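REQUEST ID: PR-0412
SUBMITTED BY: lab tech R.K.
PRIORITY: routine
TASK: structure prediction, single protein chain
INPUT:
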Amino acid sequence: MIDGVGRGQPPLIAVARSLPARLEGAQPLVQPAVNSTLARISKDLAASPPVDSARVAALRNAIASGSYRIDPDKIAARMMALETPGKP
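STATUS: complete
OUTPUT:
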Protein backbone atom coordinates (compact mmCIF):
# COMPACT_ATOMS: atom_id res chain seq x y z
CA MET A 1 0.00 0.00 0.00
CA ILE A 2 1.41 3.38 -0.98
CA ASP A 3 0.01 6.50 0.69
CA GLY A 4 -3.30 4.81 1.48
CA VAL A 5 -3.95 3.51 -2.04
CA GLY A 6 -5.74 0.21 -1.88
CA ARG A 7 -7.08 0.46 1.65
CA GLY A 8 -10.07 -1.76 2.19
CA GLN A 9 -9.28 -3.90 -0.85
CA PRO A 10 -7.23 -7.09 -0.90
CA PRO A 11 -3.97 -6.78 -2.83
CA LEU A 12 -4.28 -8.06 -6.40
CA ILE A 13 -1.55 -10.64 -5.86
CA ALA A 14 -3.48 -12.15 -2.92
CA VAL A 15 -6.63 -12.37 -5.01
CA ALA A 16 -4.74 -13.98 -7.91
CA ARG A 17 -3.07 -16.49 -5.59
CA SER A 18 -6.44 -17.53 -4.19
CA LEU A 19 -7.98 -18.24 -7.61
CA PRO A 20 -7.09 -21.95 -7.82
CA ALA A 21 -8.59 -22.60 -4.38
CA ARG A 22 -11.72 -20.70 -5.36
CA LEU A 23 -12.02 -22.65 -8.59
CA GLU A 24 -11.66 -26.09 -6.97
CA GLY A 25 -14.99 -27.74 -6.40
CA ALA A 26 -16.90 -24.94 -8.10
CA GLN A 27 -19.40 -25.63 -10.82
CA PRO A 28 -17.79 -25.00 -14.20
CA LEU A 29 -19.12 -21.60 -15.19
CA VAL A 30 -16.41 -20.93 -17.73
CA GLN A 31 -14.71 -22.99 -20.38
CA PRO A 32 -11.98 -25.40 -19.21
CA ALA A 33 -9.40 -23.48 -21.27
CA VAL A 34 -10.19 -20.34 -19.28
CA ASN A 35 -9.80 -22.25 -15.99
CA SER A 36 -6.47 -23.58 -17.24
CA THR A 37 -5.32 -20.09 -18.18
CA LEU A 38 -6.34 -18.65 -14.82
CA ALA A 39 -4.53 -21.45 -13.00
CA ARG A 40 -1.38 -20.85 -15.06
CA ILE A 41 -1.48 -17.10 -14.45
CA SER A 42 -2.04 -17.66 -10.74
CA LYS A 43 0.90 -20.08 -10.61
CA ASP A 44 3.15 -17.61 -12.46
CA LEU A 45 2.18 -14.79 -10.09
CA ALA A 46 2.80 -16.95 -7.04
CA ALA A 47 6.28 -17.83 -8.33
CA SER A 48 7.36 -14.22 -8.87
CA PRO A 49 8.12 -11.66 -6.17
CA PRO A 50 5.32 -9.12 -5.81
CA VAL A 51 7.79 -6.22 -5.51
CA ASP A 52 11.19 -5.64 -7.11
CA SER A 53 12.96 -4.49 -3.94
CA ALA A 54 16.14 -3.55 -5.78
CA ARG A 55 14.21 -1.32 -8.20
CA VAL A 56 12.32 0.32 -5.32
CA ALA A 57 15.59 1.01 -3.49
CA ALA A 58 17.17 2.48 -6.64
CA LEU A 59 14.18 4.78 -7.18
CA ARG A 60 14.19 5.90 -3.54
CA ASN A 61 17.89 6.72 -3.76
CA ALA A 62 17.43 8.63 -7.02
CA ILE A 63 14.56 10.65 -5.56
CA ALA A 64 16.46 11.35 -2.32
CA SER A 65 19.58 12.47 -4.21
CA GLY A 66 17.60 14.63 -6.63
CA SER A 67 18.80 12.70 -9.68
CA TYR A 68 15.37 11.28 -10.55
CA ARG A 69 14.02 13.17 -13.53
CA ILE A 70 10.39 13.23 -14.59
CA ASP A 71 9.62 13.31 -18.32
CA PRO A 72 6.12 14.82 -18.60
CA ASP A 73 5.94 14.08 -22.35
CA LYS A 74 6.66 10.39 -21.76
CA ILE A 75 4.06 10.24 -18.97
CA ALA A 76 1.45 11.93 -21.17
CA ALA A 77 2.20 9.59 -24.08
CA ARG A 78 1.77 6.52 -21.90
CA MET A 79 -1.48 7.87 -20.43
CA MET A 80 -2.81 8.49 -23.93
CA ALA A 81 -1.77 4.96 -24.96
CA LEU A 82 -3.94 3.60 -22.15
CA GLU A 83 -6.94 5.31 -23.70
CA THR A 84 -6.14 4.30 -27.27
CA PRO A 85 -7.44 0.81 -28.14
CA GLY A 86 -4.95 -1.48 -29.83
CA LYS A 87 -1.85 0.46 -28.82
CA PRO A 88 0.68 -0.94 -26.31
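NOTES: The chain has a mean pLDDT of 78.
REVIEWED BY: pending
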